[in-house]
Amino acid sequence: MSAFRNDSAIHYFSQAYELLLEAGEEDTPLGWQVQQYWTEALEKDDRDEEAIKQLIELLEKAKRKEMWHVVVNAELSLARLYEKLGMGVACRQYLTSAEKILTSYQLDSLGARLSIRQASYHRIFASLDTARYYTQQAIDQASRYRQDDFLANGYLLMGLLMDSTEWERSIDYFQKAGQIWDTLGNHSAVSFMSLNIARRNHRNGRWQAALRYSDASLESVRKAAAKGYDDKSVFWIELCTQSGNLQ
Length: 247
Fold this sequence. Notes:
The protein is mostly helical.
């Protein structure tokens, strides 16, 4: 998703869905995936109301078809959107529903994503201690299922949660996240991890380290630009990091 310029992504997925509709294949695994990616592209373009409307339609259809994997993913995306909008009650309702379905149908591979969303909810609206608990769960689950992107998100979130008490350990987690995203070729995410580390070194008087990581952040931005990333991808990561809206 990050490799698309976002306006192109919205156009691509909307066109792909139209073709699937014409072929009567909108309810195939590919059809479900296209619809979910389309809503993610809308969200990244800050078209949140459109994304919510499409996700609710997708959710209701997936429930009728008993596509529980799609249901859980849609509910977690809705939870993320409502968290972003500051609507804690709605966020929590979708998290609770997703957890019940995941448990009932043993959708264990979705556990890491659920734990990240639960951790993010508690970081924003409730208990930091509970947020740390769910973040560690996310790290453990993502490691078990070799879900590198979720693992990196877990490390990022743990770094944010430790920042006020153990800033040096928070840097360790940002470095771990950055290493994974570098392997995955997500240079925008690597850039923001370097920027997080630079800020914490600067805040604590480590000027040379702050300068070194600032330079590394700029280099990653250049790599991202060379691959055709939209500048919005960097701002999206910053928004998610500041508000807790992780995957």
